[in-house]
Structures are given as C-alpha cells and as structure tokens.
Amino acid sequence: MTVIERPAATDIRATLEKQRAAFQASEPYTAEQRCELLDRAIGLLVEHEQDIIDALSADFGHRSPMFSRGSEVLSPLATLKQTKAKLVEWMQPEARHVEQGEAWVQYQPLGVVGIVTAWNVPGNMVFNGLAGALAAGNRVMIKPSEFNPQTSALIARLISSVYAEEEVAVITGGAEVGQAFCSLPFDHLLFTGATSIGKHVLRAAAENLVPVTLELGGKSPVIISRSADFQAAASKIVVGKMLNAGQLCVAPDYVFVPEESMEAFIAIAKAVVAKMFPTLKDNPDYTSVINARHYQRLQGYLTEAREAGVELIELNPAGEDLSQAHNKIVPTLLRNPGSQLQVMQDEIFGPLLPLKPYRDITEVLAFINARPHPLGLYYFGKDAAEEALVLRRTSSGGVTLNGVMSHAGVESLPFGGVGASGMGAYHGIDGFRTFSHARAVFRAGN
C-alpha cells in the first residue's frame, strides 16, 4: 500500500528506508523499465481525467474545468510523453574532450527523490516532477498540499493503484507532516511553494546536506513598450491574469503601462473580461480563491489600497454582488498603487492587477532591479534594442516576449527561479539532469 495517511515521522522515514533499500538492492532501471514506469503515470491521467477535474473543483469550490483539464491533465501528459520519447537520448554518456585518454559524463540516478507540491496546480506539479525523477531512474516520495484534501487523497489513491511503495509513495497530511518530510535525508528534494516556506525547507534539508531545487515565486512584472501592439499586449496580459483567478506562480503580477496609454489599457481590460466572463458569481469557469485565509488576504490588499486613496477599477461586467459567492473576488485593476502597500510588496496570487504608469524604460528597469528577482518577466514590444536592454539589465527565472507565462510550458526550456524566486531548474532534459548525478569518468591512455 502506497498511501500513508497522516503518518508519524518514524513511518515516513520507514518508507524512505524501504525505497533506499530497494534502490541499492537492484541494478539501475533500464530505459525500458523507466519508460514502463512513465507509462503507468500516463495511464492514470488518461483514465482519470474527470476524477482529477472533479477533485479540484471540490477543493476550490469553483474551478474552471477547462483550465483543470489543460493544466492538470493535458500539460503533464505532454511532458510525460515527451520525456518517454527523449529518454534513451538523454541517458547516453556525454563525451568530453581530452588531449590523451578518454573522458565522458555518465548520468546516474541519485536514489530517492522527495517532491513537495503546492496547491494551485497540484496535478501538474506532481506529474511533472514525477516525469523527471522517474526518467532519471529514481524512487520517489511525494508530499502534496494539505490545502487540496480531495485532490491529494485522489493522487494518493491513483499512485498506489499502479506503483509499489518502494517505487513511488505519497505522504499526505498537514504542516507537521510536511516538516517531517522535508527533514528526511533524501538524495534530492524538489519543493514548490511560497518563498517564506522555502526558507524553512532549505534549513531542514541542510541538516542532511540534501540538494534542493526550490520553485518559489515573486512579483513577475510586465512591461508594455511603446513599440508594442497595444491591443494584443493588453488582451494577453488580462487573459493570463484571469487563468486560475491569478493563482499561478508565473502569473503577471503588475504591469508597466506607458503613462499616456493607461485609459486605453483599462478599457481593453474591461472588454476582455466582459467577453471571457459575462458573469462571475455563478460562472463555473471563473475560479474561486482556494480558501478563506487567502480570500481575506486579498481583501486586505484591497482595503489597504482603498484607504490609501488608490483608484480601484472593478472588472464586473454584470455588476454582481460576490460577497455571498464562495471565495470569489471581482477582478480588480489598481491604478498606480504606492510601493509601500502590501499589494506591491507581496506576491499577489489572485485576480488583482496593479498598473504602474511610466515615462521612460530606465525608470522601469530601476524599479524592477530594486526588488527581489521574480520567477517570470514579460516584455511586449517590437523595439529590438529595447528588448535587448531589458534582457541584459534584468534578472528573472524565465522570460516570455510578447506573451505571458508561455516559457513555463516549453518543455525544452529549464523552468526555475533565481535568487528569491528559487534555485535550480527542472522540465525536460533539465529535469532529467537535476535528478541525476553527472558522474565524471576518465580513462587514462597507455
């Protein structure tokens, strides 16, 4: 049985020891065995698509079925299939040049990989992490978020139905279970979540010198250049922000708008939301905030901004009262909020979008560079010199040009943060290498 409900720390450690013993007792998985392990995950997603969508809807209260299908089923399915298709190529020794003798890098499985996932796109994170860890030949232990009790329980049941405990195990439970999990002597730990929690994870892992990949977040800025197709840029930004009600780690967090174009952006935003969501209250495709705590956090941002005199522009096409809707918040633009406000300090993770007017690109770059490095950065424009300046003078985990968030879905690109937005990367070959030991081998000449 793979599912362990609210286990004691000793039980979690016993699972780790069982996996490590199985790893050490066996030859490394062959390419065929790894592909078969990946096939089991593919089968789960194909056979249980509706179950996954329903569980997420139950956890959120209201969650777009279309978004759930795309993010939690189709996206990880594509990742697993591409991983399987490329696996033999990735496993090949990599020759290195030497003057005499022979040298190469041989990628070996690490052993047991721990994966801790966040609540916003849990299926995506579980199966994407699983793809890289299994492709590299590891055993895997997974701790999904307690904020998704229905989804976490479903993932645990599904995993246990196709994997033995010594292959893949799911550990469920609250914060105390998560703390015990992150304190284990894994061979690698992948954590996705808030920067504040990432610091605790790193401290816990340090006790056992466990290498860690941290996928955190931050305030991902958007820059609209005066050279941009303004209509297209504003539309893409608003659509991106509305996905999962802004509850994505790479969601556009705030937007730099040329000062003379502020009214135009607001008008486009109103039109885009009216087309996407003519109603909000009973619209199943308009996702709720995950829970009451995060709902109150977002309402607090609005209250503070309102009291500070910030103009709030609600995007509420039908003029509905959402106070009695299950944790639904009206999408809201905030016109030029001050930097001291919490909405400009914290990662928003909700359908609120601050707009910052600007005159010159240099002031934009200075603003971004005075703050922690974000997970994503987005630039819209046709000015090649200005684009190059933005890429050269800023630092972020990844960049999408003339779009938002798309870089995170390109499997051939590493996905990860820098500085406060994380360390390390995975996805595609970068995930395979993250979960592998690159062993240097040199054969001396005669």
From TrEMBL:
Gene3D superfamilies found in the cross-reference section: Aldehyde Dehydrogenase, Chain A, domain 1, Aldehyde Dehydrogenase, Chain A, domain 2
Segments forming domain Aldehyde dehydrogenase: 7-441
Catalytic center residues: E215, C249
GO biological process: aldehyde metabolic process
GO cellular component, one term: cytoplasm
Pfam family, one: Aldedh
Annotated protein name in UniProt: Aldehyde dehydrogenase
Organism, as annotated: Aquipseudomonas ullengensis
